[in-house]
């Protein structure tokens, strides 16, 4: 019973983060399942089966709060489902040890771009509102879906920074669209695992515990992402990407850093991340105050002009 309660709490916390930042549900949940001895394929299958419910509730919640671009959902979600099914089907015969550090390096680069861009300049405006093309979203979906099913998580960490870096979709709609499209990925990955593993290797009680926690958190996260300033949200997402992928690189065979080196780097990242969030929030308040002042001055000028105009005869 204690383990089930813990799994439910993990599902709640993971979905709260995932629904707010567009990533980390699969990574968090899979990490716990692996830590208690579950084999990688069964762990990923358990998480993806739970995600069918959590992503459905999360998608509906994001839709109600206006956080979803449906064109993006289908353009990335359908190719993502294809990649997820392929990855799930062949997971038992695949090794992602070599690919993981390379993918982490790519994601770290994207994370640094998002982090610096949003912290220093806020929401990208130059291309905001321009359509995201199929030739960009389709390959991204296939890669993200494949990584997600083979690694137990990755749809958000791959998809979210790539779309944010394009500057064409505001953060809350990026996160809402990624979370909503993940439903298609979760269904396809689950079918692939059931086809490749069968149901005997999956503990459906664990699936239910993760699902309950995630379903409770989904609408809260959808409300939260609508009320977090884009500048702060972008800095937060960038920090998550940097921290997650720095950890992967430092623990990989490429670097294999000692505990002292890793913890020192983590400490630096946390300090810089915290400072960036404080700075982003202060700049948001400053800009918001400036915008209110401009609006108030414009309303005052309009009212003064109305008073000066002669009354109609």
TrEMBL record:
InterPro entries on file: TM_pro_TauE-like, TSUP/Inactive_protease-like
Location(s), subcellular: Cell membrane; Membrane
Topology with respect to the bilayer: Multi-pass membrane protein
Coiled coil: 281-308
Annotated TM spans: 40-60, 72-93, 99-118, 204-225, 232-251, 263-282
Chief location bin: membrane
UniProt keywords, alphabetically: Cell membrane, Coiled coil, Membrane, Transmembrane, Transmembrane helix
Sequence similarity: Belongs to the 4-toluene sulfonate uptake permease (TSUP) (TC 2.A.102) family.
UniProt protein name: Probable membrane transporter protein
Species in which this protein is naturally found: Paractinoplanes hotanensis
């Amino acid at each position: 019973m204690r383990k089930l309660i813990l799994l439910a709490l993990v599902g709640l916390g993971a979905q709260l983060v995932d629904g707010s930042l567009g990533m980390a549900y699969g990574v968090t949940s899979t990490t716990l399942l692996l830590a208690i001895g579950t084999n990688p394929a069964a762990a990923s299958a358990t998480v993806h089966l739970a995600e069918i419910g959590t992503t459905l509730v999360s998608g509906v919640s994001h839709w109600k709060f206006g956080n979803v671009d449906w064109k993006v959902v289908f353009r990335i979600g359908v190719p993502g489902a294809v990649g997820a099914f392929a990855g799930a089907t062949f997971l038992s015969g695949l090794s992602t040890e070599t690919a993981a550090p390379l993918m982490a390096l790519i994601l770290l680069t994207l994370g640094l771009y998002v982090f610096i861009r949003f912290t220093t300049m806020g929401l990208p405006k130059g291309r905001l509102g321009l359509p995201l093309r199929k030739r960009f979203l389709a390959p991204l979906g296939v890669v993200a879906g494949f990584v997600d099913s083979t690694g137990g998580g990755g749809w958000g960490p791959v998809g979210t920074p790539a779309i944010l870096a394009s500057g064409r979709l505001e953060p809350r709609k990026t996160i809402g669209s990624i979370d909503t499209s993940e439903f298609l990925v979760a269904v396809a990955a689950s079918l692939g695992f059931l086809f490749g593993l069968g149901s005997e290797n999956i503990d459906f009680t664990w699936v239910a515990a993760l699902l309950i926690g995630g379903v409770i958190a989904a609408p809260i996260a959808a409300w939260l992402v609508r009320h977090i300033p884009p500048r702060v949200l972008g800095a937060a997402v960038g920090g998550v990407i940097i921290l997650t992928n720095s950890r992967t690189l430092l623990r990989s065979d490429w670097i294999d850093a000692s505990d002292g080196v890793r913890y020192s780097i983590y400490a630096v990242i946390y300090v810089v991340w915290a400072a960036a969030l404080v700075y982003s929030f202060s700049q948001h308040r400053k800009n918001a105050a400036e915008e209110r002042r401009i609006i108030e001055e414009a309303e005052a000028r309009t009212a003064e002009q109305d008073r000066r105009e002669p009354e109609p005869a």
